[in-house]
Inverse folding.
């Protein structure tokens, strides 16, 4: 399960906002792990968004049955109360869904301290009672959410290989690139692309059986069958009987030997029959830890396409599209400022646009550059604040498998020098820390040493792909998207 430490115990951040009619509206800016939502105490929106993500993540059986009657009841002093209809449901939520719910909601509510469940017979559920039990946001049969389409996917040089490969796959599934392996950092569009492949094939080639799943779901279904000593036949049939299998976030298979074996056989069966397989991961196959060699080589046997950080034009195009979708005018300098300040995570970009849109809606006029800048700067400050220098050092040390103390000691051992320079570079480049602060943090080094390290890293990153992948991995861990190393 993903770490929650970034999102807990964050101070509540409330701003008074004076409405035109001099009414005071309390609003909180909510940012976390690249998400930023303006929250007008509308917990329904928070819950609806969480349901969309939960539906992709948790084992499907019973999703609608359990979540139909659940709702957010209140959110006070960091305690979020979720109402459920019975004691049985309460226990079920605590046992089965608590960690998924906590992970997802703590990303949307950074000041969330903990979650409790209360029994309430007639709560106001978000999922309409009349909705068919099988179909809410995601099609239960194939796991696809129609929201993710190629039409809304902006292409730039940062993702054009992955996009072109994805399109090719939809044109002749199983024949062009098999498997297709897409990797990239958090919030860069992997899930969007994977789902778009599924939706496109589903529309254009109706005879093809498509199935999207997350690794977590595959793993949890498999493990629960094993634990309950139930036959695996229907599980095997489900995953091996499709024409197109899309598996998201394959890195979660790391260290799970039995599940890897099952995946290996699933892969072989499908591949032998020329059935298309597409994987996504936050890292390329050779860096995913604790992965069997035979699986690693299967992943690498087709096409590996990476999605890197979006370039400025692409960022601008994405922001403009999001504003257009919402039918809101955002001034060009504001768009440019956002794309300058938020450089990596597309989810982060969406978040800040949401904040601007919410303000513009209230004002009913486009925000001036100064007003928008104020909001954007606050968004940025919030996303940065949540990660401390110590966490960066700890993460770098864990990923390079060295002692955290070694980073700040004067040793020049080769296995420590690069991680130390990486940590310095991240502090400087991603977190704007001053040279002297970084120097102090690393055992009282001179600021010129820090400057040298940062320059060296910037330079090396232009050619050293392996170093680039390591840094991406560290960033992904810092943003809380990967399991603990
Ligand atoms: P990942 O799976 O890589 O973490 P997602 O696919 O969930 O990222 O993308 C995060 C958000 O950014 C989604 O809302 C997605 O629609 C949006 N997004 C990502 N890439 C693009 C793109 N190229 N064009 C438009 N929107 C994008
Ligand atoms: Mg994803």
């Amino acid at each position: 399960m993903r770490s929650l430490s970034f999102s807990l115990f964050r101070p509540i951040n409330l701003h008074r906002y004076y409405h035109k009619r001099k009414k005071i509206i309390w609003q909180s800016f909510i940012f976390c792990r690249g998400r930023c939502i303006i929250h007008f105490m509308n917990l329904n929106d928070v819950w609806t968004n969480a349901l969309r993500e939960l539906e992709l993540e948790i084992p499907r059986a019973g999703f609608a049955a359990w979540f139909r009657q659940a709702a957010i009841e209140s959110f006070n002093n960091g305690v979020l109360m979720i109402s459920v209809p019975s004691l049985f449901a309460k226990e079920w939520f605590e046992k089965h869904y608590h960690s998924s719910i906590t992970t997802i909601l703590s990303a949307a509510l950074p000041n969330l301290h903990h979650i409790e469940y209360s029994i309430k017979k007639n709560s106001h559920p978000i999922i309409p009672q009349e909705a068919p039990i099988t179909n809410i946001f995601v099609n239960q049969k194939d796991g696809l959410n129609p929201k993710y389409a190629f039409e809304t996917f902006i292409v730039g040089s940062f993702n054009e290989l992955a996009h072109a490969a994805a399109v090719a796959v939809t044109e002749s599934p199983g024949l062009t690139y098999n498997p297709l392996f897409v990797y990239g950092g958090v919030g860069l569009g992997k899930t969007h692309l994977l789902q778009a492949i599924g939706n496109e094939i589903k529309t254009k080639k109706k005879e093809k059986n498509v199935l999207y799943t997350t690794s977590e779901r595959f793993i949890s279904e498999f493990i629960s069958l094993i634990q309950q000593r139930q036959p695996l036949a229907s599980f095997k049939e489900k995953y091996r009987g499709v024409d197109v299998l899309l598996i998201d976030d394959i890195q979660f298979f790391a260290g799970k030997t039995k599940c890897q074996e099952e995946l290996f056989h699933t892969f072989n069966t499908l591949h032998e029959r020329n059935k298309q397989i597409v994987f996504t991961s936050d890292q390329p196959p050779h860096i995913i830890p604790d992965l069997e060699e035979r699986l690693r080589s299967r992943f690498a046997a087709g096409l590996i396409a990476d999605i890197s950080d979006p370039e400025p034009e692409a960022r601008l195009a994405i922001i403009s599209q999001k504003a257009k979708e919402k039918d809101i005018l955002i001034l060009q300098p504001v768009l440019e400022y956002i794309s300058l300040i938020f450089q990596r995570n597309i989810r982060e970009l969406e978040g800040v646009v949401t904040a601007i849109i919410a303000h513009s809606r209230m004002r009913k006029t486009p925000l001036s550059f100064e007003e928008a800048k104020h909001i954007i700067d606050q968004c940025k400050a919030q996303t940065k604040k949540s990660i401390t220098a110590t966490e960066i050092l700890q993460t770098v040390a864990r990923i390079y498998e060295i002692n955290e103390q070694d980073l700040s000691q004067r040793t020049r051992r080769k296995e420590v020098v690069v991680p130390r320079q990486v940590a310095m570079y991240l502090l400087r480049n991603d977190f704007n820390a001053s040279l002297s602060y970084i120097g102090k943090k690393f055992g009282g080094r001179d600021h010129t040493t820090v400057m040298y390290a940062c320059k060296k890293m910037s330079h090396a990153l232009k050619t050293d792909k392996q170093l680039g992948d390591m840094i991406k991995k560290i960033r992904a861990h810092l943003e809380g998207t990967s399991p603990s190393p």
